Amino acid sequence: MGCSVLPRACVTALALVLSVAWPAVAQDQKGTLVFAVESLAAQTLDPILEARPGNAVYQAVMYDSLVGFNLEKGGIGPGVADSWELAADGLSWTFKLRPGQKFHNGDPLTAADVKFSLERQMGPGSLAASGATMRRTFKSIDIIDDLTVRINTNTPQIGLPPTLSRAVAPEGAVMPKAYIEKVGEEEFRRKPVGSGPWKFLKNVKGDRMEFEAINWAHVRGTPKFKNLTILLVPEESTRVAMVQTGEAGIASIGPETMLSASKAGLEVLSVPGTMQALYQFWGWYKPEMKDNPIAKARVREALSLAIDRQQIIDHVMNGKAQMPHPFAAFGYTEYYSADHWEKWSKQAYRYDPVMAKKILTEEGYPNGFPLTFANTALPGTQFMVDIGTAIADMWTKVGLKVNLKHYEWGSFAPLSRGEQTQLIGAVSMYRTVGRPDLQWRYNAAFAPESEQKLLGDTKNCDATCKEYTRVHTALLDERDPKKRTELTDAMVKLIAESWVAVPIIEGMGYYAVNKKLVGAFKTIPGRHELGDVFERIPRADQAAWPK
Question: Pairing between strand 250-253 and 32-37?
């Protein structure tokens, strides 16, 4: 059409071209995709009333976020905005919106809707987890034109785009300003309108949510199924049985069910880069711990060398996991030398019990030592207990006297807060989830003022702890991409070589798929939930699964 940057005349022409294709799109949409899931969380379709799980499962199907995903690599990518830029002084981000977007009621999506949505997330009726942070850091939001919005901040917010991406949180969801102001909040919650690939049909509390595919081209993908039903089925065995009988096309499952689902002829789909199972040491830096073996970094390294991660991947995770990067880092992590750290991890996280015994002997523990191991699992990751049991057995083989204590998460979580008195000198299972913005997860685990304070507290902060604080502080203010990567790598190195929080495996989200109903599709790395994938899922007659 002779338009290099899609000016408004070209946008109109493009809309006319797309409108010709809409009837063909609608004719090719058939059937209902039924997804059986263990939880529907709060089951609300107002983005300001729902936290991460609901936003990522069912709100994602009908709402777009200001920042989206890199569909192939994982991490952030274009969303409602197709580009964003940080000002030279670091005090504002300018987002350029893709032209031609519209809500399900036909209203155009503009910068006014973005401003309205962000302000609504910060408003008094919002339950947004980041609402208080946004109120504290956002100075103002300016509408430059219909397709440009600028967020002004009180201090530099280098990591702002990920926080407005559904890759991290729901706060970036874009809602229709004119519609909500016309019908009011209560009516909007009964009949919600978004701009995503699926339109709202029905919400049956405690049972299901139903959606209908839009019949026009969408940048995230145009649905192949005509309808989508997200069905609440708490029992995993029932979910799998429904996929076997064809009552559901897809169901969420855990690692414990993967083998039986595969033997039943179902496709078992895994999502890479969603989490790490790890163990971490508590209070090792306290003065009373100075003579304890775990106060020595080499001893902590030896315990890692004693773990056969591949055996855990093969036998606990049924082969549906992989070797990890360092703590909380993934292949899609921003400002991070992923290739370098992948090579480092293969060597550092190798299984070498001979070297483990050698180090223990050199450090004065040829016959091992007693160690309390709190074995627990965060909700939805029960397999962590099996991993912990396997680790305890491996440590016993290099001489440790492991006192394995099993905790329900509800009883363990309070122990990790405050003074952590009952955990001092112990090691526990833990988990970190996949996020592109590494520095925030590190601060929550290692800052002396943090809740976990794994590296030291405000009274006991050694040279490594102080250096971590220096590097992390510099990272928050650094705007040059090259220097930012160097600082991130330096922070990762400090923690990786301290061996205080040690990844065991990089886990995945797991789903059972009926190959007679659903065709082959790829998930988004790091996106455990399928909320942004349903529109790209083909019918079985459209794409066969590889044999």
Answer: parallel
